[in-house]
Amino acid sequence: MIVTLIGLGGMPDTLTLEAREALERSELVFGAQRLLESLPAREGQTRIAAVRAADILAQIKEGSGECPCVVYSGDTGFYSGAKGLLALLREQNIDCRVLPGVSSVQLLSARLGEPWQDWMLCSAHGVDCDPIAAVMQGKPAFFLTGGKDTPATLCRVLTDAGLDGLRAVVGENLSYPDERVVISTVKECAEREFAPLSVLLVDAAPRPCERAGGIADEDFIRGDVPMTKQEVRAAILAKLAVTPDDTVWDVGAGTGSVSVELALRAVRGRVFAVEYKDEACTLIEQNRERFGAWNLRLVRGRAPEALADLSAPDAVFVGGSEGALAEIIDAALRKNPNVRLCVSAIALETLSAALEAFTARGLSTEVTQIAVSRAKPGTRLHLLLANNPVFLISAHRGETI
Q: Which segments of 340-384 does DSSP mark as H helices, in order?
């Protein structure tokens, strides 16, 4: 017995000749009810509506039909349930083969007359998907949609991130008689409704600044709000060991200079800049746009209250606590007991409070003092001008930081 896994493409009209012949020989066909109903009728063929790999395997082992086939929408190699069934068939040493179909990626590409080889391919069909991170990869992002994530909901996320002007293309019911391709903007698509069988293509976001880990101070818009200096920002990123997929909080974000650097490092993650002062919030939004840090989200409010609804962090920087440092640390630890923490302090009282809070919670702690002097040219000599020394108190649950 050889089990054949078949990608139907869109409508049966897109079925390959090889797949069509396999279905004509088959006496037993499995698949979603919608797909089975789309197949041409064949006398003597048993069709069983099933989608779970384990259920299909059990019925294949019990069935007596010759040349069993399992049909899937689109292509078997593109976010298809065929992957799960293949693994089970191989575990049971059941012979199988795969006949691919025309994917929704290919269909939309053909309708637009654009190659899809450079698209970022993403699934938002029943899995968590961050459209902001997807469009920040420097190429158009293609999304399979379904369930709670529709083209409109994904476009609303992008609109909230300031990317409302990007081109968005929605392909509805591709290959079906009521097919429709809508070419518009992210903002306009966010306000529309689309068919359940839809895919979304969004152009790449303006490229973010490629330098992270010490952007020059003068490159930031800062106004009258205090700003963490370049050398200190670089050290903060090192202490927090931020990776591209991290979720990070910047509490007391000020101008957003640290938030921006964190966002450019966590390019596939998300950074929450928590700030309550109006002038600072405006600067955060301006610097976010200036550097293309689209994965940076401003959270207006005071900590710890403003932290309640944020995603669990992998790392947290506290640049300002307004006397609520212990409560901020507790909020982070409740979300993730293994979170990496870093607090900056210019006052000895803040240093003492951070050490006390970390020690009381059983965290391994390290203190670093950074004293930076910069040369300023005079009439004949270059003189060093010292910036205020800064303490970085970093902590993590475990023996090492």
A: 348-360
Among 315, 392, 395, 318, which Cα is nearest to 360's? Answer: 395
The answer to whether residues 118 and 142 touch, using CB atoms and an 8 Å cutoff, is: no
- 283 token code pair: 């600067």
Q: Are strands 28-31 and 390-396 parallel, antiparallel or unpaired?
A: unpaired
In whole angstroms, give the CA distance from residue 196 to residue 35. 15
pLDDT, position 381:
77
What are the start-end ranges of the E strands in 180-295?
A: 180-185, 198-202, 247-251, 270-275
Task: Output 355-359 pairs: Cβ under 8 A, ≥24 positions apart.
Answer: 355/393, 357/325, 357/326, 357/329, 358/329, 358/393, 358/395
Predicted local confidence at residue 398, as pLDDT: 66
Q: Which two tokens stand for residue 12?
A: 């049966």
State residue 250's pLDDT score.
97
pLDDT of residue 104: 93
| Radius of gyration in angstroms for the set of CA atoms belonging to the chain, rounded to a whole number | 27
CB 29, CB 71: distance < 8 Å: yes
**pLDDT at residue 113 above 50?**
yes
